[in-house]
Design a protein that fits this description.
Elements: E1 17-20, H1 22-25, H2 36-41, H3 43-49, E2 53-56, H4 84-96, E3 100-105, H5 115-122, E4 135-136, E5 157-160, E6 165-168, H6 183-198, E7 203-206, H7 224-240, E8 245-248, H8 254-258, E9 269-271, H9 275-285, H10 289-296, E10 306-310, E11 317-318, H11 324-334, E12 341-342, E13 345-346, H12 350-353, H13 358-370, E14 374-378, H14 436-441, H15 446-459, H16 462-465, E15 467-470, E16 478-485, E17 488-495, E18 501-505, E19 514-517, E20 532-536, E21 541-547, E22 560-562, H17 573-589, E23 601-614, E24 617-628, E25 634-644, E26 658-662, E27 669-673, H18 678-689, E28 693-696, E29 699-705, E30 718-721, E31 728-732, E32 736-740, E33 743-744, H19 750-761, E34 770-778, E35 784-791, H20 799-816, H21 841-847, H22 851-870, H23 884-908, H24 914-917
Helix pairs in contact: 6-7, 9-10, 9-11, 13-15
This protein binds 1-deoxynojirimycin and calcium ion.
Calcium ion (CA) is lined by residues 27-29, 31, 33, 35.
Length: 920
């Protein structure tokens, strides 16, 4: 099956999961506890981060002795967080942002405060109520089951005074295990599951699922009865709902873990626990073996199933699925203080585990995002939050999210003593430094790096769906593998060493293809039959896609549909996000005027938007900010409008003018670049003619008419000039010429300043007279020039095109007569210009009769213009002293211009047709 065909049902394969507790994210009412209202306010943050799925830790009423995994009521929310109706709102709001939400189905045990347990202890022995839990009057049973919370518990049995019997618990003694041999318990679980799926949640993490049943002479884990029950659960979900996910938490060795997929009829996903500590081992041992070995030991899984992989979560870094020697090693290298150990694991967040080493944090995330499975990020790790193991149990990794450097890290306005847990004030990780706001402001921050990683992963389905094949270079410090899905192959190389490394990879089967580095889109030298040498920086990494040397023909992408009631909806929530992330980058790349085509666009944002009502139409005039991976951001103007499919003019609108399909007020049509609308073009003229001002929020759009008034007249006929230019030109009545600027600066526009000065101050005749302009201004910011209107000069084109044609003609003629050198005086080099006297009659003839006189005229006019400009007393037009420094800096900038041009040429060299390639 192709990716697109099963995109919806297999969404979890392409997901990026973000694990978070409502109480830890954002406190909206200042009681010190994060809540749903707060969470709603931070959804935009998650959307911006780029994750696709939110995993919410337990939020039910609970005594909170196991942070909510001790549930006292399955059907409501802990009132500190909110209520069901707010929860449903969260689901709606998340879905509106294309975010899925999964929650916790904790069914192995309840809190001892759950009414079922309170009822059971009082019920008669053997009654269905008593049998909701597992009871016995001695403790000899199930002795092979080991103890999980070794730091707090000494037995899996605890005595209950009221019942006068022992009850069974695999975790804390206040968490009695439910008895799955009781059909009533099984039915309760289906009811709970049904209830939450009806609220719209997209799936569940099944907590502690290997322990549902108990049988004598077994370790009471992974029993056939447990798998039977999971099949029943899955059937129920499939019969009643669509596209829901069951994610098992089965902390087991790979062969036991895969059993939770069944034959594709149990859980869709399962955590790959054993790979996690091995990633940490591999970077400490500087050897790939722990990773390759565990993947080799992992059986294939049914095709619709998927692993979930993670680096850290809300629990200790568990070391249950490693050998004793490996555990000793992990403790030795990853804990500096004994207190960091808890149960069978280490209670640290990602950054402290990796000693806050940015390269290692990146490398580990690169592994997380490229090994097979769906990555799960633990909240706060995207900004490198610290921890505090003095807080007891696992609370040290559950502290409030750090939003900014204000009180309580911006998490809550409560008295700091009142917070559910204190914020991190450790000098190295203190919230004043490590917080979202600081990192959003700095494009080099970890947060920005994570955003780029996430967005890159989302572009290549092979990460979520591809096969894995390891390469086996002799340098064992290098982990290299390919991920292949359909026709796409990705090559991932990771240097596990803290020193630079060289590695030769056998890529023979890709000979002739080119590794293109994903983040820069830089093609590396083509692959040959011989081994390919890569060098990697300390803990460096590469993500390549293996591509054909020929340029990929971009597939004719069908237009995206945006669900809007009216154009202004484009500025809101999810629609705006779709417009910014999907529609605009794609559209920009197809326009002539967009200058960033050689760059990798990281994101596009609408920075200033102003709705315009003109006659019966609505338009949106926008300025966009384009952020590149490795280039300065740029701003562009893009007016948007709507044309209905029924409109007779819509036939004349070219495909390149269309951004998306929309149906405002139910009328189907297209979102277009408004310069293709004649009404919009009229509007621009009228803005200037009437010197109008339009205000919207803090934005002002202002038309300005020159002293050389445009005579009041009927609405002029307009047309769009369809030429190859970096701006857009509109002609009115063949008398006026309007230049709509595309790339803009919020500083003075020299084009406008010069034209205006020459025509208004100097009456300089040889520049098309200035007639007016339009400015867009956000309060407190510099105005941006959107358009300039000039008198139209009848012309046969512009000098640039004219000259180019002339040279082409000359070359054609000259070449047809043999060697070009023949026209060139022997002693002259190509870089020293000839004077016109030096030209032979033959050359003059080939250039054409007017060539020289026109050049002379151009020179004369240019000189006159300079004279006019320098005659001004305005400081902007004063000649600048051409100092040695100025000369040097000019040299430097020309050099770098030259270098960039050559670099660009080199980059695209192998995309050029053969015959051009060697010349280039
Ligand atoms: C697994 C959860 O991840 C952990 O936090 C919890 O303590 C145990 N289940 C017991 O509920
Ligand atoms: Ca609160």
């Amino acid at each position: 099956m192709k990716y697109s065909e099963n995109k919806e049902t297999l969404w979890y394969k392409d997901a990026i999961i973000y694990e978070v507790h409502i109480k830890s994210f954002y406190d909206s009412n200042g009681d010190g506890i994060g809540d749903l209202e707060g969470f709603l306010q931070k959804l935009d943050y998650l959307q911006d981060l780029g994750i696709t799925t939110i995993w919410l830790l337990p939020f039910y009423p609970s005594p909170l002795r196991d942070d909510g995994y001790d549930i006292a009521d399955y059907y409501s929310l802990n009132p500190d967080y909110g209520n069901i109706s707010l929860f449903k709102k969260l689901i709606r709001e998340a879905h509106a942002r294309d975010l899925k939400v999964i929650t916790e189905l904790v069914i192995n045990h309840t809190s001892d405060q759950h009414p079922w347990f309170q009822r059971a202890r009082k019920a008669t022995v053997g009654s269905p109520e008593r049998n909701y839990y597992v009871w016995i009057d001695h403790t000899d049973k199930y002795k092979e089951a080991w103890i999980i919370f070794t730091d707090t518990e000494t037995s899996n049995w605890s005595w209950d005074e009221e019942a006068q019997m022992y009850y069974w618990h695999r975790f804390f003694s206040h968490q009695p295990d439910l008895n799955f041999d009781n059909p009533l318990v099984q039915q309760e679980v289906l009811n709970i599951l049904h209830f939450w799926l009806e609220t719209g949640v997209d799936g569940f993490r099944l907590d502690a699922v290997p322990y549902l049943f108990e049988r004598e002479d077994t370790n009471c884990e992974n029993l056939p009865e447990t798998h039977q029950f999971l099949k029943k659960l899955r059937r129920y979900v499939d019969d009643h709902f669509e596209n829901k996910l069951l994610l098992a938490e089965a902390n087991m060795w790979p062969e036991d873990s895969v059993a939770y997929f069944g034959d594709g009829d149990e859980c869709h996903m399962n955590f790959h626990f054993p790979i996690m500590p091995r990633m940490f081992m591999a970077v400490k041992m500087e050897n790939r073996y722990p990773i390759t070995d565990i993947i080799d030991q992992t059986p294939d899984i049914p095709s619709d199933c998927q692993w979930a992989i993670f680096l850290r979560n809300h629990d200790e870094l568990t070391l249950e699925m490693v050998t004793d020697e490996e555990r000793d090693y992990m403790y030795r290298v990853y804990t500096k203080e004994a207190r960091a150990k808890i149960n069978v694991g280490i209670r640290h967040r990602l950054a402290p585990l990796l000693e806050n080493n940015r390269s290692l944090i990146e490398l580990m995330n690169v592994l997380l995002f490229s090994l097979p499975g769906t990555p799960v990020i633990y909240y706060g790790d995207e900004i490198g939050m610290g921890d505090n193991f003095y807080l007891g149990d696992r609370d040290g990794v559950r502290t409030p999210m750090q939003w900014n450097s204000n009180k309580n890290a911006g998490f809550s306005t409560a008295n700091p003593h009142k917070l559910y847990l204190p914020v991190i004030i450790d000098p190295e990780y203190r919230y004043e430094n490590i917080n979202v706001e600081n990192q959003q402001r700095n494009p080099s921050s970890l947060l920005w790096w994570m955003k780029r990683l996430i967005s890159m992963r989302k572009k290549y389905p092979a990460f979520g769906r591809g096969d894995i094949e390891f390469l086996t270079p002799s340098n064992a410090k290098i982990l290299a593998f390919t991920r292949t899905y359909n026709e796409d192959t990705l090559l991932i190389i990771a240097n596990l060493s803290r020193f630079p490394q060289a590695v030769e990879l056998d890529l023979e089967k890709y000979a002739g293809l080119v590794p293109v580095e994903l983040f820069s889109r830089n093609p590396f030298p083509p692959i040959k039959e011989a081994p390919y040498l890569f060098t990697l920086a300390s803990n460096g990494y590469f993500w390549f896609s293996i591509e054909s040397a020929k340029e990929k023909v971009p597939s004719e992408m069908p237009l995206i549909h945006l669900e809007v009631e009216n154009l202004e909806n484009l500025l809101e929530g999810n629609i705006r996000n779709k417009l910014e992330s999907l529609v605009l980058p794609h559209y920009l790349l197809g326009t002539r005027w967009f200058g960033g085509k050689g760059q990798t666009i990281q994101s596009v944002h609408l920075s200033t938007s102003i709705p315009i009502r003109f006659k019966s139409q609505i338009f949106l005039l926008n300025s966009l900010r384009v952020i590149y991976n490795d280039y300065m951001p740029e701003d562009y103007i893009l007016p948007l409008g709507f044309v209905s499919a029924d409109d007779k003019d819509s036939q004349t609108i070219p495909l390149k003018a269309k951004l998306a399909t929309i149906d405002p007020e139910g009328i189907p049509g297209w979102l277009i670049d408004a310069v293709y609308s004649s009404e919009f073009r009229s509007f621009l003229f009228r803005m200037i003619q009437d010197s109008s001002i339009i205000r919207y929020k803090s934005i002002e759009l202002k038309g300005d008419q020159s002293q050389n008034m445009i005579p009041d007249q009927q609405e002029p006929k307009n047309r769009l000039m369809d030429t190859d230019q970096s701006n857009t030109s509109i002609i009115y009545d063949e008398k006026y010429f309007l230049k709509l600027y595309r790339k803009i600066d919020a500083i003075i526009n020299p084009d406008l300043e010069i034209v205006r000065f020459l025509s208004e101050e100097k009456n300089f005749e040889n520049v098309p007279e200035y007639k007016g302009s339009i400015h867009l201004q956000e309060k407190g910011q510099q105005p941006m020039v959107v358009a300039m209107l000039q008198r139209m000069v009848e012309n046969q084109g512009e000098a640039f095109g004219f000259t180019k044609d002339m040279i082409e003609r000359f070359l054609d003629n000259a070449m047809s007569q043999g060697d070009l050198k023949h026209f060139w005086p022997e002693e002259k080099s190509l870089t020293i210009p000839l004077t016109d006297e030096e030209l032979t009659d033959e050359v003059n003839e080939l250039l054409g009769p007017q060539a020289l006189s026109l050049m002379a005229l151009l020179g004369q006019r240019t000189a006159e213009m300079h004279l006019a400009l320098t005659s001004s007393t305005q400081p902007e037009f004063q000649p600048e002293y051409f100092s040695k420094h100025y000369q040097r800096s000019l040299y430097s900038s020309l050099r770098s211009l030259n270098r960039t041009a050559m670099d660009n040429l080199k980059r695209i060299l192998h995309y050029l047709p053969e015959e051009l390639n060697h010349r280039a």
